[in-house]
Amino acid sequence: MIKNILFDFGGVMVAKESWGPVRRLEDKYDFNKWFINKKIESLILDFEKWLLSADMFLFWLRKKIWDELANELYDFWQDRSDVIPFKEMFILVKNLREKGYNCYLVSDTNSIHKNANKLSWFYDVFDEVILSCDIWYSKQEDIKKWTTKMFDYVFEELKIFPNESIFIDDLQENCELANKVGIKTILMKNPKQVISDLSGILGIDL
Question: Using CA atoms, how far apart are residues 56 and 46, in angstroms rounded to an integer?
Answer without folding.
Answer: 11
